[in-house]
Amino acid sequence: MPRAALWITAALLNLAPALAQTPAQAANQYTTAHRSPLTQSFSSFLSIPNVAADPDGLHRNAGLLIHELQRRNVDARLLEIPDAPPVVYGRIDTPGAKHTIVFYAHYDGQPVTPSEWDIPTPFTPTLRTVDGEQRIYARSAGDDKAAIFAQLTALEALRAANIPLHANIRFVWEGEEEAGSPHLEQILTANSALVHGDVFLICDGPVDQSGAQTVVFGARGDTHLAITVYGPHHGLHSGHYGNWAPNPALMLAQLLAGMKDANGHVLIPHFYDGIAPLSPTEKAALARAPVNDQMLMNAFWIGHTENAPAHLLSLINQPSLNINGLSSGATGAHAANVIPPTATADLDLRLVVGIDWRVQQQRVVDYVRSRGYFIVDTEPTQQILTTHPRVAMIVRDQASYNAVRTPMDLPIAKLVIAAVQSAATENASSLKSTSSVRSSQVVLLPTMGGSVPLGAMERAAHTRTITVPIANYDDNQHAANENLRLQNLWDGTATMAALLAMQ
Is-above-0.85 flag for pTM? Predict the structure, then answer.
């Protein structure tokens, strides 16, 4: 063979590895070539109602997902128990695999109030351009159908590029996460051999507010209490009985005001007791993470924050007490000059590792009792109300769970970080995107602010959990006008491709 030919052959051989596509490159190429049909398919997925009040809609979602998995040659089935939405399960076995990776997401969404939305209905997906970028508006656009769609699309992109899988892959897509996952552990336990893996990748929630891809190693726990205090048996004329009959709205306001100081620090005794400290690795990760507080204050139109000068990422690693809502009497055009008979508050307690949800509930109950209230857990009788100056009915939510945190330095954690980093680097360097928010940084966080039933997964599947979200932080999840920035969907597909192709 002539020397020139040998040189060309050698050059081509040296070039071959550079020409090989990475999983993220394959995903970006695929989504760029198929933007329009992919957007239409995502829109069709979003158009299927998925709220708990519509069980038929939930089953339609599950049926569609089974079809989509089977269409991609994935062994798929429903994992079911009576009176619960099914878990959609998919399985890919890879010969010689060293690891089994389980991808978790949920196909159900929060309840909707259509009148609050700026689109025809919450299940009429609508494209809009915001700050020069396309977003799709619909319930579950960001939380959490985007992650499921990204996983399906990533699988398709890898196969189109002939990129093999190296690990066994499992998909676990839940249908009642927004209701607190009351049946998830039961379903997973009954199918523990099917769902066991080296790691559950929780593909739920938003990326960092800076726009950087995020890997989170834990989530807060969550529990709720409903507190109702009592005044007269029925509404009384405020002129005839004001200053005499106790007003439960004021009583509740005073009770709640005593739970926090002016800076937002919770005053309930022992509320912060038992917190498991962060490790040096976790503290170092927090120190490297972006501080986005000022940007968020401007975006949310707020002039101060609680617990200043501590910033958001630090406070997420503390337990919190939030008033989700208050009700008593009426306001505005419906207001009447009466002393209302009751006042109710719904309290949301977020938990961190080391604090049990039952203990935290009891701390609140003990505090209310210390303020002179007789505590009941069902509607009080006339005798109870007339023989105690203050009565509070406290209903404890049993669909609660504790916080979970996975060490950042586990071998499987390092593999996940490396895969996500490869996708972030590719997304940042891609010239196919016109996005203004493209960062190769991967933000590592010990805990995210939202709550996911990680403990149920870890116990039932004998595994560890790591969260890899893809939605934009300003997606209005759980609220009206929920949306997804489409570039997050395309970037998220690249991230899912990198994770699917992990060793």
Answer: yes
